[in-house]
Design a protein that fits this description.
CATH topology: SH3 type barrels
Radius of gyration: 13 Å
Structural class: alpha+beta
Distance between the termini: 20 Å
Number of helices: 3
Helix content: 25-40%
CATH class: Mainly Beta
Strand content: 25-35%
Order of helices and strands: EEEEEEHEHH
Shape: globular
Number of domains: 1
Largest sheet: 7 strands, antiparallel
CATH architecture: Roll
Length: about 120
């Protein structure tokens, strides 16, 4: 399991819209709440563009942090799921993402508050 905000993991999920299962990159947000954001190849509404300067291990030239919904998993959801570590976002990118999320018109108010709280805790420690 990821240790802190900003770590990126790749694993199969059933939460990708439009597919029964799909392997996705997940950005850890708040592990106590099982909260992640997807990383996508396409710029869905409200997404933030990232490049290899933000995520050096990124397999493409650019990707997008999805800010359409916080994806949640329980420990039971992830039990037995092979999880591949895929790097982490830079702190500079995380600060930009915090600002981006705080201004989101797509996430719910509760999701914005939870994600921004996770950023505050991360940057205070």
């Amino acid at each position: 399991m990821p240790k802190k905000l900003g770590e990126i993991f790749r694993f199969e999920t059933q939460q990708a819209v439009g597919r029964a299962t799909r392997t996705k990159y997940h950005l850890a947000i708040d592990l106590g709440q099982g909260a992640f954001l997807f990383i996508n190849s396409d710029p869905f509404e409200g997404a933030m563009r990232i490049t290899r300067a933000d995520w050096p291990e990124m397999p493409k030239e650019e990707s997008f942090v999805s800010c359409t919904a916080v994806i949640r998993y329980t420990r039971a959801d992830l039990q037995g799921v092979p999880i591949q570590q895929a790097g982490r976002l830079t702190d500079d990118c995380l600060r930009r993402l915090e600002d981006h999320v705080s201004k989101s018109w797509v996430l719910t108010i509760q999701e914005i508050e939870m994600v921004c709280q996770a950023f505050r805790v991360y940057f205070e420690t």
